[in-house]
Amino acid sequence: MDDLNKETHTAIAHYLTALADDELVLAHRDSEWTGHAPILEEDIAFSNIAQDEMGHALLWYNQLSGLTGLDPDRLVFFREASEFRNVQMVELPKGDWAFTILRQYLFDAYELVQLKWLERSPLPILADPAAKIRREEIYHFRHTGAWTQRLGMGTGESNRRMQRALDELWPFAGQLFSRNESTWPLVIAGTIPDPVDQWSEWQTLVVPFLTGSGLKLPGEINSIAAERTHHTDHLSDLLLDLQEVARSDPEASW
Amino acid sequence: MTDSQWPRFEVFLQDREGHSHRNVGTVHASDSELALQNARDVFVRRPSCQSLWVVPATAIYALTKQEIRENAGLSADDSEQQPKNADLDVKSYLVFQKRNQRRTMSYVEYVGRVDAATPGQAMAGAITAFDDPSSTVWWVCPASVVARSTVDDVESMFTPATEKAYRMPQHYRIIQQMLEAKSRLLGKADIEQDA
Questions:
Q1: Which domains does chain A have, with CATH numbers?
Q2: Hey, CA dihedral for A237, A112, A50, A211, is it positive or negative?
């Protein structure tokens, strides 16, 4: 990694930060269901998923730490919202159960498509964690897919809530697949996938499944067009929660 | 039926190749696919697992040794309950037994199969075929109602748990940490005197 030029170094650091921040923020939203999930077994299942996602975040922060020397704890607990590179989809409040399930399903599908590519990246710093994470994501996807089907085709109420969730979430999906100026050199170099290719692969995966689950895809989509560093107010609310304890005594050792 | 719970499924876990599936508890689920997933999330956090089975609780016919003794006339031939000319298909039934009083985290374990046309016949066959004197409980259920994890599932369903050392109590080395904390508080000389 010492022979990387500055531009490539920054690009990889930004890409790793995005991967880690997505997982961290989603893990936090998922963990908000612990003790509140609709059924006891699901409380355990979804807490497991949250814990897995947190583990994935740590894997990516550790890769970032190896590259930049930055300490993961400092990154998580002492950055401001504008320094985070997660997509807006994962910072949205947890909503009702349908919203959480659908958000998780759409994101799990994105991760599977992305990790399948990253497993074969010529950069070991990206490829090594990808294989391990993908094993767990296969299970997440199976779980949220099963729930999406059952809620989509369950009762009138569950279908309505799922449809509302889909209508709310679909405009945020585009941000997962937008090209970024800073990481574009990595696409050219063949070390990360082109988000536009991933977009069509993802749609091939989720669109038939959603329509098969009794849901209608929104017609014209006004995708949010935003850099990953642009966030809704929800992220700063989330960080207040997440960072409160650590910031109350920044010098404490845990 | 006013029960607001989802149907109950009994869960059987095989921790290693060559070991029998053991009943580790139950989960509620809307159907067998979610039952399998819930079983994995509830019961495969720490123990190692090679295979999971789930069976709807209503499909299990269970008898204890005591119940058998109390109903001494248990008949293998309950055909008087069936229509006289019914064409009864012989099906394969799985048999589970409790033989061991010492195991705390599991109940019955899988011991084999019998063929029968009704649960009653299956149970009678099981008691005859698996008559180990230490047996105290017999369960039978049709093989067709069992939902199983597959070999392809192992990598995504079970392997990840084995890599999460932080879920194991041993990971935290509690006793060693306590000794170290104690020695920090009291001074090493005192500990050596105690030891």
A1: 6-248 (1.20.1260.10)
A2: positive
The pLDDT mean for chain A works out to 94
Weakly modelled stretches of chain A, pLDDT under 50: none
By CB neighbour count within 10 A (0-12 exposed, 13-18 middle, 19+ buried), where does B18 fall? Answer: exposed
pTM value is 0.89
Residues B116 and B85 both lie in one domain: yes
Q: Are the beta carbons of B157 and A139 separated by less than 8 Å?
A: yes
Task: Give the tokens for residue A38.
Answer: 């609709």
B interface test, pick of A33, A39, A133, A140 with most B CB neighbours within 10 Å: A39
Range of the domain at B181: 164-195
The pair of three-digit structure tokens given for residue B120, joined into one six-digit string: 């009653």
Q: Which residues of B175-187 are buried (b: 16+ CB within 10 A; e: fewer)?
A: eeeeeeeeeeeee
Q: Please work out, in degrees rounded to the nearest 5, the angle formed at the alpha carbon of residue B79 by the alpha carbons of B78 and B85.
A: 170
B25 contacts in A (CB within 8 Å)? none
CB-based contact A64:A13 (threshold 8 Å): yes
pLDDT, mean of each 10-residue run, chain B (195 residues): 80 95 96 97 88 97 88 53 59 93 86 94 93 92 96 93 82 90 79 54
Positions of E strands within A78-172: none
Q: Name the minimum distance, in Å, from the CA of A134 to any CA of chain B.
A: 8
